[in-house]
Fold:
Amino acid sequence: MKARLARGYSLAEVVVVIVIAGILAAILIPQFSQPAIDAAWYHEQVRSAVRHAQRTAVAQRRAVYVVVEAGPTRLSLCYASGCGAGTRLTQPGSTDTFELAAPSGVALGISASPLSFNGLGQPSGGATVTVGARTITIQAETGYVQ
Structure:
């Protein structure tokens, strides 16, 4: 009689793999909480907005201000330090003003408010923007945003 070669996996092997996958999923999925995801997303949005302010200042050869406003907490880009009516930048490809409201539970702060970029892209001074537990640093002379 010929020896039959086993092909595939036994039921026990499949059950063990499914149990291990279930345990890993139970451990890893809670680490992806919505507030943490919102905070990470908002951090990237704020960093992009600061870079956009700098590029807009260079492109239009005029001062652009990055202002953190309270109640509700939001970041705005404006042509004047007070961010009055008619001085707010618009979102690219839209007529909506450039304002980023902070998600609930995410704190937003800036060390030098308002921060401005001149027509050469240089900031009014070095600054640190705090988004939750993360920071965005703007270098004083070069305006490098990191």
User: Anything to note?
Assistant: Helices lie at 11-28, 34-60.
